[in-house]
Every structure is written in structure tokens, then in C-alpha cells.
Amino acid sequence: MKIKWVDSAIDNLAGIADYIAENNPEKARNIVRKIRSAISNLSKQPAMGRLGRVQGTKELVIVGTPYLIVYRIQQQNIEILRVLHGAQKWPPTN
To answer: What is the DSSP letter of 60?
Structure first.
């Protein structure tokens, strides 16, 4: 399956990297590497995440980090919707 990122997920990952890099650039690179590796594994095993809190989504917890990926499977694509810290309120309330 092909991985597609939506803009909000790209922004989330960049924000995570920037925040961590302020104090520890090497740790930021390692976290981003772990997140990207987990997302890459989704192309081979798209069902590996748990059912998401938003209907039609799945959530993959990134082992060894406080982060999770929110994604959905659309035909032959996996759409990465968000990259979130586990402490973030998700889904957002209006």
C-alpha cells in the first residue's frame, strides 16, 4: 500500500521535531526516525494499529515514544492524518 501524508500530519511531525530539537537535536532525529519507520511498516501491515477514536480511523502507538499516528485506509492508500503526543486531547472538541 502507498503512504500519503495530509498537511496536518506533516505539520505535526515538523512541530514535534522542532520542539525536541530545541534541547536535544539528536533525540529529535531519533524520534522522527522511529515515527517514519513505524509509518513505513504500515505499508506492509496496514491493520496493525488499534481502532481509532474517530470513526474510520486507526491509531498506531510508536513503541518507545509518547507518540501515536492517526491514519485511515483508503483503497490502496494509507493516509497519515495526524502525529500526536499521547497526552494531547484527541479527538479535538469544538
So the answer is: E
CATH class, domain 2-85, is: alpha beta
pLDDT bin (cut points 50, 70, 90) of residue 92 is confident
Distance CA 34, CA 52 (A): 20
pTM: 0.91
Rounded to the nearest 5 degrees, what angle is found at the Cα of 67, between the Cα atoms of 36 and 55?
Answer: 95
Per the CB < 8 A criterion, the answer to whether 53 and 83 are in contact is no
- CB contact set of 61 (below 8 Å; sequence gap of 6+): 49, 50, 67, 68, 86
Domain range summary for the chain, segments of one domain joined by +:
2-85
**Rounded Cα distance, 27 and 63, in Å:** 15
Residue type present at position 31: I
Q: Is the pLDDT of residue 48 over 70?
A: yes
